[in-house]
């Protein structure tokens, strides 16, 4: 093989012209260069060899569970598929139809995903609502009506008492026959707790028995999967089914959790399942992730009724590889999902979410101060929550305690139900609570929060849009809200991470909304009683409506959500889509920005990154930046005192030596070099591929023995006459491994890993192989840095 | 230098421990590895050398005009700067303040950019409006009022005749003293043309004399600059000043152009100018481009009153390197700009744009058919426009014709003015035309387009929101609109590319809006006269308002804009922000999608990419995908019969040989190899850096002669005793050049170039240097492919 090692670089190969036959290029990592057969090993065996190699070895190019995909290889595979389809499509009408089907399958799969996500979100909304009301009572006229629907048909109730109607019976009324009194209160209390426990028990049991992956919010895992990790079954049909059912149960059980995160998981399951209908997506892990990105946009779209926010969420928070084509399709999926949900109309208000609001009063500059204060609160809460929750989850993982998930869920559910019932703000559905807190007081508002003294006669009244003195109702509401705040804070820490589907958005927003409403009412009363302060003088005359406590609740909700997740743009856009006014973006931005900065001061990870790290997933965050002072040679393996790197030589190893190296090491792949003497890098071979190829050769090729020579070159090496038949492994050799020099700064290496989605990279010095850097090495290196090096202050 | 070439890779360097001193890493390409001095060349000269090297050679690391930046180097430079600031900031309060200033400068610069862009947009709007009305007449009571403002104060006019008031005098009234009659018509006609010509002449003269870069829309150049190209002065203060002034003049001259594209240029100038206040941005080309991305978002934000659309435009259309941090800052800049513009309130409607609309009627499913038809029209128009405009521009570039830009502008302006005046739809400002076409007919609408027959008595009346038979006014309006359509189509082709600031958004939207309105009225009349057709039966009873012609105008505008620019998500979001209703996104998406597909069928480039190609800018589009069947070795230089690659050897060249190579070739850089015999790659040195370093050495170092040995290694080679002093150039050697193997498929190479922003990449085979691939080679290769290979059908 002199020619391969030729020192003259300007007269290279025999076969390397300008046009390379199509079949030569069937995917990186599989047989690139198997043209012009014939060589040292005799013509007959060579044709046999060629036959064998032309059919791709089954299994080569697939991945094991819990392994990282090779983005580059997947993208090449996809383009190869395209080439095949393009070259075939002129052959027949059938092939042309197939090529059209292939071209449109991207749109089909996102449409189907959008439709399914929207429909499932509608079903979940309706079912959760019904089950939630079941804790309080039943509708006698029609069992399947929830409280609100039950009383719609009733003509006997007035608008103010629209919650009460004879058809709707509380459990006390039904069982004891009486609606008032301590006995019925206890009965209702008992039934409330009973149902909550039943739902929680059912949920955790279903998850445990049928689909362990259905628990949690799913977003950390989806982020990891989108970054190129394989977790088989995480997005499968069982997970989808069980997650949908148990999500309804978990929400209805009254636990401090929301359905927004799990809805993203549900949408991604839909995307994954539908992608199996289209070979373009089912057979390519990189393409499949495009569908999943679109699906996560659809998930957020239905969770918050915010299609644009959903797309930005997908872009900012979960996606890794996001070509512009995906942006457009994600947008489409998000819209389709939103329209399906709107036509299902689960809340009866032709809106996608319960807590859509419209404000009519502007905000004033001095209000930025309380808004920023809410931002600080949000950041503190976020930092505190992340630390406390991670500490608790770590304890659960490491101690015996984690072995009884059912018991844990039931305990938490029981405590939640028992503590929640007496306080009206914790008893009700969290979404409804948020809606109530967001809504501005108006003449039609019957809430306790809107009990202000009328200016005319000093008695209690519901003012129509002007600041007024608070009546005792507001004060008692403030007390109850404060208790609810403490309750929610504590329970959320223990709830997120339970073995039931549990989202974090709604509890976080609820906490922020409570805090915000409290601050809002405080500012409002301050402005009312001190309207001659220089701050208020300009805007808050007596009788004017200058403070909107509902807006404070919304700003607080955004701040708390921002503190926990560290989302920025997408969060602001989501909340903007909830309010529908550009007007309020500035307060939102101020609060979200403050919250992020305050949160980042205590630790730069959001809750999802923290959970990814807790679970040890190999996720290379695209957002973190560090100032490395290291070079590639400091991070590469082997380190100074390690055993030398396990390498293969291109043409002088026997099968026995090869198998020996494979069995003695556990590396996922091996560099191939010219020879032990020259150490120049030829390529890279994956362990899995080598094993498969050897087995395949053993099955199909005769004469392969332990002392067979293994070669990765184009032509077989010249061998003694009596030597057994050699084994050609060139087809599994990746002849274009990524390399960096040993002097490359690590920041560049990390950048390359992130942007190209590498699994490993070889380190050379003047063309000679020195070592290898894997994604795992990079993660370890970043982990080390995190402990020693300050992050970039620039990242504000 | 045995150690450098050591074949044993596992025991490498003396100095290479885990921690590398800070100063060793001052930027890629400059002195990485100049630790532990002392070597073959004697201690005294070595310390001298070290002193020399520690101060960076001035000029190394900067760029020439019309060259491409090295993203990787810039990013490393920035991190190095951070390290310095971070390490210093604990030294003193002053350093700490400086570090805070540095950390906040990102926010400061985008805030300033947003403020300036908003203010300039407001000024441009107001001035253009005033100048435009000057073509018709003057306000006697106050010269500086435009027509509308002039008549605001007038109490004598009724609402229906709000355009007429005694204070406002047309030129005929002023000069001839009469308002009616053929004489005054001719006078007005003459003055209209006179002013139009004056404005156009002034605009083109100013551009020609003061700032040639101020012409055109600027978006192709900004895209190129953002992708890493240097065009000095393109974003400078002269360009800003002249562009602002001439934009006003050009818009007022009535040419078929808009201010939206140039506003993006103006905003980018602001961003560039403000970035000079902050060393973090002024001294780093990569960081500066972050500011420019944010600025372009601000530009679109004020152009269309669409902050979110602006961010997505920046992301989808112009930006190249867009980290998430930039997304957040772009959003902020866009918001600030929008709020400044809103407080300036140039249109007196507290909206950011003239043509903000709100529709109140839904659309029906059968309307998708005309919407898709409009999409087809938009796509056809886009494809036709791009071809025709590029052909015309090419003709202008290649023939003598392009030598008389002033004459050309005046000719086009004269034709435009003369043809435009008689037709009311072309005489008026294009933005106003779009507003009129978008607006739905209501009881207050006095437009000719709203002259319907009343259902009661058959006479002309303005119906309040229900379909009706068109009156003659509508028919004559349809005729005039058709003529206006033809006129706009022709004039826009000849206008875009003139040497005045000229945007394309408004003319494109106007064409689409005219076509859309015509289709809308046609469908409306069809529905009115055939309301028993099965299509209309369900929705269009007599008296119901089922068709909104204004919506058709908007859909048409989006389709035409989409056809010309091939924008997708950002376009839909921009138009969504104009209407403020999620409801109409589906028609918009359908039309924009159709328009893109139809346009792509005729050629996949948008107008901006086409102009980039026309001007030969080195822009590597991130969106195009091809199925290459080539490998790196097919694209690399030298080709088979070329002269061998010009390489430097690491330690056996003399200064004369080096200078010889530099003077004989024109390459921007040279690979450095171990020796002519071994050909193994060591690094890469830039031509500019070598020249600067040699000059610097000549000036500062004694004893450098033509036969001095030049070396790139750590230690000087052992030389004969009488040889002159050697020159060490290691500090300018990039020791981590990007390499790929010759077998790497070109699609991967292109991907690497795009994602990492490379300028060149070396090609190796088994560690031996074979050739080089530059960005130019890649662009040529893609150009070739474009002619031979079908693009990916998948890209639908």
Automatic annotation (TrEMBL), chains A, B:
It is found in: Cell membrane; Early endosome membrane; Late endosome membrane; Lysosome membrane. InterPro entries: CBS_dom, CBS_dom_sf, Cl-channel_core, ClC, ClC3. This is Chloride channel protein. The lineage of its organism: Eukaryota, Metazoa, Chordata, Craniata, Vertebrata. CDD domains: CBS_pair_voltage-gated_CLC_euk_bac, ClC_3_like. SMART domains: CBS. It comes from the Eukaryota. Belongs to the chloride channel (TC 2.A.49) family. ClC-3/CLCN3 subfamily. GO terms for molecular function: ATP binding; chloride:proton antiporter activity; voltage-gated chloride channel activity. It holds the Pfam family Voltage_CLC.
């Amino acid at each position: 093989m002199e020619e391969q090692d030729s020192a003259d670089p300007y007269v290279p190969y025999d076969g390397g012209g300008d046009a390379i036959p199509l079949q030569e290029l069937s995917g990186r990592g599989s047989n690139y260069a198997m043209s012009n057969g014939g060589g040292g090993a005799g013509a007959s065996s060579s044709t046999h060899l060629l036959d064998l190699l032309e059919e791709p070895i089954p299994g080569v190019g697939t991945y094991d569970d819990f392994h990282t995909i090779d983005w580059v290889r997947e993208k090449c595979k996809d383009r190869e598929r395209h080439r095949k389809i393009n070259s075939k499509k002129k052959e027949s009408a059938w092939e042309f139809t197939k090529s059209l089907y292939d071209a449109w399958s991207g749109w089909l799969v996102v449409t189907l995903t959008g439709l399914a996500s929207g429909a499932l979100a509608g079903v979940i909304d309706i079912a959760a609502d019904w089950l939630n009301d079941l804790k309080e009572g039943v509708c006698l006229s029609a069992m399947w009506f929830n409280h609100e629907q039950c009383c719609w048909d009733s003509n006997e109730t007035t608008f103010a008492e629209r919650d009460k109607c004879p058809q709707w019976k509380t459990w006390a009324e039904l069982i004891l026959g009486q609606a008032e009194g301590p006995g019925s209160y206890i009965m209702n209390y008992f039934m409330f707790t009973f149902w909550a426990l039943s739902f929680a028990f059912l949920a955790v049991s279903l998850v445990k028995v049928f689909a362990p992956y259905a628990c949690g919010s799913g977003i950390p895992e989806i982020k990891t999967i989108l970054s190129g990790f394989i977790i088989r079954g995480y997005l499968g049909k069982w997970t989808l089914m069980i997650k949908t059912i148990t999500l309804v149960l978990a929400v209805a059980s009254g636990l401090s959790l929301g359905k927004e995160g799990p809805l993203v998981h549900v949408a991604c399951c839909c995307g994954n399942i539908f992608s199996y209908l289209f070979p373009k997506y089912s057979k390519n892990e990189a393409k499949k992730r495009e569908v999943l990105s679109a699906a996560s946009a659809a998930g957020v779209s239905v969770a918050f009724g915010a299609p644009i926010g959903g797309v930005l969420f997908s872009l900012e928070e979960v996606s890794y590889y996001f070509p512009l084509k995906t942006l457009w399709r994600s947008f489409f999926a998000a819209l389709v999902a939103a329209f399906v949900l709107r036509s299902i109309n689960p809340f009866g208000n032709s809106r996608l979410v319960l807590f859509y609001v419209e404000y009519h009063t502007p905000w004033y500059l001095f209000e930025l101060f309380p808004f920023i204060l809410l931002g600080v609160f949000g950041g503190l809460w976020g930092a505190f929550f992340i630390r406390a929750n991670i500490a608790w989850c770590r304890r659960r993982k490491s101690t015996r305690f984690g072995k009884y998930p059912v018991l844990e869920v039931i305990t938490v559910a029981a405590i939640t139900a028992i503590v929640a019932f007496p306080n009206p703000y914790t008893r009700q559905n969290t979404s409804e609570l948020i809606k109530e807190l967001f809504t501005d007081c108006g003449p039609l508002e019957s809430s306790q929060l809107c009990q202000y003294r009328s200016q005319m006669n000093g008695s209690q009244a519901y003012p129509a849009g002007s600041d007024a003195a608070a009546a005792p109702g507001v004060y008692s509401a403030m007390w109850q809200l404060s208790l609810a705040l403490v309750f929610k804070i504590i329970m959320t820490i223990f709830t997120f991470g339970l073995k039931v589907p549990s989202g974090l958005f709604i509890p976080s927003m609820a906490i922020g909304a409570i805090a915000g409403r409290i601050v809002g009412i405080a500012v409002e009363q301050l402005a009312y009683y001190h309207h001659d302060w220089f701050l208020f003088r300009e805007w808050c005359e007596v009788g004017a409506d200058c403070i909107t406590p509902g807006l404070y609740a919304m700003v607080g909700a955004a701040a708390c959500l921002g503190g926990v997740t560290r989302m920025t743009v997408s969060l602001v856009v989501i909340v903007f889509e909830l309010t529908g006014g550009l007007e309020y973006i500035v307060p939102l931005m101020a609060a979200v920005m403050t919250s992020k900065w305050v949160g980042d001061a205590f630790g730069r990870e959001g809750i999802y990154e923290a959970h990814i790290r807790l679970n040890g997933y190999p996720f290379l965050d695209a957002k973190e930046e560090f100032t490395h002072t290291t070079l590639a040679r400091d991070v590469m393996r082997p380190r100074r005192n390690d055993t030398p790197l396990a390498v293969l030589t291109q043409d002088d190893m026997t099968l026995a030596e090869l198998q020996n190296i494979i069995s003695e090491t556990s590396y996922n792949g091996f560099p191939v070099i010219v020879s032990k003497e020259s150490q120049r890098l030829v390529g890279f071979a994956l362990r899995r591929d080598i094993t498969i190829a050897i087995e395949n050769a053993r099955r199909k090729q005769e004469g392969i023995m332990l002392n067979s020579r293994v070669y990765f070159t184009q032509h077989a090496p010249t061998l003694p006459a009596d030597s057994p038949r050699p084994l050609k492994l060139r087809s599994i050799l990746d002849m274009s491994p990524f390399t960096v020099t040993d002097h490359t700064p690590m920041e560049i290496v990390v950048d390359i890993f992130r942007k190209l989605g590498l699994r490993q990279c070889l380190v050379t010095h003047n063309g000679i192989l020195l070592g290898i850097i894997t994604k795992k090495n990079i993660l370890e290196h970043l982990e080390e840095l995190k402990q020693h090096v300050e992050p970039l202050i620039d990242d504000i």
